[in-house]
Design brief:
The complex is a heterodimer of chains A (97) and B (488). With 97 residues, chain A is mainly alpha-helical. Helices cover 33% and strands 4% of the residues of chain A. Chain A contains 3 helices and 2 strands, in the order H-H-H-E-E. In chain A, a hairpin with a 2-residue loop joins strand 1 and strand 2. The relative contact order of chain A is 0.08. The N terminus of chain A is likely disordered. With 488 residues, chain B is an alpha/beta fold. Chain B has a domain of 278 residues: Amidase signature (AS) domain (Amidase signature (AS) enzymes, Alpha-Beta Complex), CATH 3.90.1300.10. Helix content of chain B is 39%, strand content 12%. Chain B contains 16 helices and 11 strands. Chain B has an 11-stranded mixed beta sheet with strand order 1-3-2-4-6-5-10-11-9-7-8, sandwiched between helices. Classes of the chains: A mainly alpha (97), B alpha/beta (488). The interface between A and B is large, with 47 and 74 residues.
Chain lengths: 97, 488
Amino acid sequence: MTDKAHLDIEYVSQLARLDLSAAEKEKLGSQLAAILEHFDALKAVDVSGVEPTAHAHAVENVWREGDRAGPVYDPEVLSSMAPESRDNQVVVPKVVE
Amino acid sequence: MPELYHQTIAQLSAALEAGSLTSVALMQAVIERTEAVEPQVKAFIHRDAEDALQQAHASDERRASGNSLGPLDGIPIGIKDILAVKGQPLRCASKMLDNFVSPYDATVIAQLKAAGAVLWGRLNMDEFAMGSSTENSAYMATANPWDLDRIPGGSSGGSAAAIAAGQAIATIGTDTGGSIRQPAALCGVVGMKPTYGLVSRYGLVAFASSLDQAGPMTRTVEDAALLLQTMLGKDPLDSTSIAMPKVPDFRAELKHRKGPWKLGVPREFFGDGIDPEVKANIEAAIEWYRAQGSEIVDISLPHAHLSVPVYYIVATAEASSNLARFDGVRYGHRSVAVEDALSLFTQSRGEGFGDEVKRRIILGTYVLSSGYYDAYYLRAQKVRTLIRRDFENAFETVDAILSPTSPTPAFKRGERSNDPLAMYLSDIYTIAVNLAGLPALSLPSGFTSNGLPIGLQVIGKAFGEADLFAVAQAYEQAHNFHLVTAEL
């Protein structure tokens, strides 16, 4: 398994789109180091030839029987959940220059 | 007879049926009790007494006109703040969802409504169900009714404490790594995690989708059986839900399944880290089963000690992905001081999430990131297979497995808040069950010398809920620990 020193908190917080204060980064860094050390126990296990389990019970892909119309929400209901909305549309900062 | 608010669903539904009690009178007793003890217990994030009384009134009217909907009709049931109830706030104990109101009912909630249950309040929990002490709630820390300086367990701590304090007759919790069973054990109530897929996850805010299950928290095993009966079934809105081949009448089956059983005891669950009083208590419970004629089989779960690292890789990986939806755009908290789209995401999330949620998002993002995926996530999924196989092997020879639910009784508030690893290890006996997708239940098995509840965990075969209930009820009826109530 990879060296625990490689958890670059700056980089990982960017990947996670998560703002962390300097104090949070320092605290998290030392706590995560201890947790990753605990994960090292997995290194010793022989997993050759073992299939990974993604779900407790086998989930098979199936073809849909065709979409059927179900209940829908009024646009007012959905847009009223947004932190900012206008004319039933969600308002966000400009994303295209 | 105990006070109304300390009675069971079975007792109260019989009284409602006989006409000696109305749902409104019952609800009023529960509301009064809640108001009296809530300043100490702090189990509820939100409650609406008027709405609950209206539901109770509607139940009484149904019954009066001969249209009762069954044993849950008119019974106050508390809901963990993670399941959507249309028109009610859903905060997941997070600042991220401070103003969120559910636009629809979770399937479990729709099932409870169809059974006439009175939905009572939003119960406190660890933020986004991440924690084992309910100290991670952004709103308040819930107290253990048996000792107010101690934690009630978590993440369904409000759901467990509310029953122990007489603030609800039963509650619904959710269990990703022990979040129903561990607080049930620490608060002296029954908590049941169904087989993965038995209960729909639609409308349950996702933490780790391959592990999450909702389940009943009650005073007795019979009540848990009654509640589960209404909660199960294949749901077109949850592709991972599974139809039980033949759904038994769990309550009726309790009368027919009387043992003796072949019961496995995993030797790995009695080693380092277990409190001596907990160990002695569970060993005594095992001896009781032996004395009753059950065969006790020494079994080995050789990979169980790897459950904690596997769980905290798999669950955080799934969480980091599931919680990506909280981005400040369509709902939830949005930072006011944003400059562009990227800072809208990062700042809203940085402000909205608490410490433990951030810790798990970072950990989950890391184990999924390029260069680490194979070493952590893929390897953990493979070890998960080995853990599942351990149980499959064990269940070739035994009907159920007995173990402690938690290695220690309830600990003091603040004792483990700065040591996440110590907190994670409090789930060491419960999380293997989630990784294997099995059903398991915690029931009261006695008290420590200073009066703290201890829980016995019974683990069943996949879809073996009927046997699980029967094994648990045999012990319960011979010991009656559920009749002892916390003094508040």
